[in-house]
Amino acid sequence: MCVACCREVDLRTDKVYRVEVSYMEIYNEGLSDLLADNPAAAENLTILDDASNTVVRGLTRVEVHSEEEALAQFFTGEQGRSTAVHTLNSASSRSHALFSVYVETRASAEASERALLSKLHLVDLAGSERTKKTNATGEQLREASCINKSLTFLEQVVNALARKDSHVPFRQSKLTAALRDALGGNCRTVMLANLWPEAAHLDECVSTLRFASRVRCLETSAVVNESSDPVLALHKAERQVKELRQELAMRDMLGGRGRVAYEDLSEGEQLELQQLVLRYLNGSAQLDELPVDSLKRIKETYKAFKAVAGSWAAAAGHGLVHGGVANT
Length: 328
Hints:
alpha+beta, 10 helices
């Protein structure tokens, strides 16, 4: 699936894609980052979720540009998986693992502030174990207990979703919490069941098939996930403002008007405008000298009147006004 995703991205050249991958292990109800460079930070993970999205805070996400890079990250993380040898399997997985692919799609790299977000979880569930058959003891017995317990909680969640219960116990285990947005609602869920069809393992096969049939009953409704990048939205707004100012300047030029400033006034220009307003109030400037060539200039003139009035009020409070005009 991951390879097919990367190949599809390579074929679609009409859009801009960003692909990232992560690899997380759930071992004995603990979370571990299999792609982390710093081993100390590999276990400092927290699952955060809301009604529509689940995020693992602290989980490393590596950007990849080809299927080779994606597979390289997968095999790098695979080397850190917890495995053990027992009677039935020489390389038994002692943990659950989630290899996730995140795809962000934009119309173009610069112009589009809206993005389509997709997430693909490839989940490897450790198989349930009967310790009488595996002869597990010590640490392997503890691992088997955690695996069976988390799978039981997963089955309870699937049953609750299939029955459409008002409460679904996602928080019972790290596995169900991490898979919250991959089991119900805005997703598509597919389960592949691995069986050992021998008479000695008939009970396990039947149990696995029953669980798979319940997963098949899950009702999901995948919709488009659209997100807006605030930084790109700001850049787009700034570009639109610049274009509008250029259009206004061209309209003024074609209409025979002089240069009209539509930009914000600098501190020096604001001071000059206040001095002009002050001269007008003192009678040394005429009404037609006040700027009225644009709405922004008119608003700035009102602000200048307010500033002058404020300075007069402050001066009056200190007895510095003579003849109705403040000494400035």
